[in-house]
Specification:
This protein is α/β, with parallel strands linked by helices and about 375 residues long. About 30% of the residues lie in helices and about 25% in strands. α1 runs antiparallel to α3, α3 crosses α9 (about 360-375) and α5 (about 200-220) packs antiparallel against α6 (about 260-280). The longest helix is centred in the last third of the chain and has 21 residues, at about 260-280. It binds nickel (II) ion.
Length: about 375
């Protein structure tokens, strides 16, 4: 077993390994192998789930208590790193630009600390090292197993470069949005650019749909509910004197409340279909549902705030975001709480200069271990 300083050095060195070896969603093979190796070395039990990538481990407490889980996502992004760190990515064009390397090491550190104190631990803690978070549906791979069957509550963490080390962002209620994607194909009739009356031009139809979609936010959704629609692709035609046959609109809808999500899909379909008909065109709407909104359970948020203060962290209200996290899929099954951990102010996540201040690693692991273990005195 390590002393506190040795453990910190070990965690930082393993963190740097993960940072240097980023792997994209569902390709996290070396990452998986490394997580297994570190956990096994520390005597932590790995549960035999047949995952292609990702690991589920458990620390079994000696006393009776509730089973809890910690979700740590493990995948990286197709971003070219520009941090200038000595341990920068050695995989060209790939980077841990969302801090999932930090999530991995905080989870490992927490597991090691709890394993060392399992005699005092009431209940079991499962560690879910989840692949594919950046696809927004990686959690579904984990949910294909029965890992949550006996779990009463789940915790999630995220690196937060808008806060200093020592600051945690926690709040009750919605913290990230439901993420949905749509593709609208408008079918008109192509013709000569000088004779639009010979066809049905899909471009003005698409333009009218783009305008009308924004009214869902301002006219249909309760003004106190966060929601947005962004049309991010508008494609039609390939030359200057031919009216094309079709136009394609693609984009994303973000909502927090369940009923707003349902309403939004209905309105997107209605606007696309009826606007097209009004112009004499046809439309096809494909709605691709992503993850739901994450919602922090009130009791868990309160518990995590009290423990943060106990551990010397200062707590700020977590900023809500219309970004998404597939952590929400777990919360459809059991209560959860998603905590933002200040990793030092700097470039935002998904940017090439994003980096994590290593001094946060051990305190974050200790905080999580105390939170889930309910152990108040020093862990190491
Ligand atoms: Ni992330």
């Amino acid at each position: 077993m390590y002393n506190r300083k040795e453990l910190e050095e070990k965690l930082i060195s393993d963190f740097e390994w993960f940072h240097m070896h980023p792997e994209l969603s569902y390709e996290e093979n070396k990452t998986t192998e490394k997580i297994r190796e570190i956990l096994t070395e520390s005597g932590i039990e790995i549960l035999p789930y047949p995952l292609e990538t990702g690991v589920i481990a458990i620390v079994r407490g000696s006393k009776n208590g509730p089973v809890q889980a910690l979700r740590c996502d493990i995948d990286a992004l197709p971003v070219k790193e520009e941090t200038g760190l000595t341990y920068a990515s050695c995989c060209e064009g790939k980077m841990h630009a969302c801090g999932h390397d930090f999530h991995i090491i905080a989870g490992i550190g927490c597991a090691v600390l709890l394993q060392g104190r399992k005699d005092e631990l009431a209940g079991d803690v499962k560690f879910i090292f989840q692949p594919g978070e950046e696809t927004s549906v990686g959690a579904l791979k984990i949910l294909e197993t029965d890992v949550l069957a006996d779990v009463e509550q789940i915790w999630g963490i995220h690196a937060d470069p808008t806060n200093d080390v020592g600051v945690l962002g926690i709040r009750e209620g919605y913290v990230t949005a439901a993420v949905d994607r749509f593709v609208i194909t408008i079918k008109g009739t192509g013709c000569h650019g000088a004779h639009p009356d010979d066809g049905t031009d899909p471009i003005p139809v698409a333009a009218a749909i783009v305008q009308a979609l924004q009214t869902v936010v301002t006219r249909n959704i309760n003004a106190f509910h966060p929601a947005l629609v962004s049309v991010t692709r508008f494609q039609a035609g390939n030359t200057w004197n031919v009216i094309p046959e079709s136009a394609v609109l693609e984009g994303t809808v973000r909502t927090m409340e369940r009923e707003d999500r349902i309403l939004f899909e209905k309105r997107v379909r209605e606007i696309a279909l009826h606007t097209s008909h009004a112009f004499g065109a046809e439309a096809e709407v494909e709605w691709i549902a992503g993850c739901p909104a994450t919602y922090n359970d009130g009791g868990m948020a309160e518990e995590s705030i009290l423990m943060a203060e106990e551990c010397g962290f200062s707590v700020v209200p977590e900023e809500s975001s219309l970004g998404g996290d597939d952590f929400a899929f777990y919360e459809e099954k059991i209560p959860g709480c998603y905590i933002k951990i200040g990793t030092g102010k700097g470039e935002r996540i998904h940017q090439p200069g994003f980096q994590v201040d290593e001094s946060v690693i051990l305190p974050a692991a200790e905080y999580l271990a105390k939170l889930m273990g309910g152990i108040m005195n020093n862990l190491i």
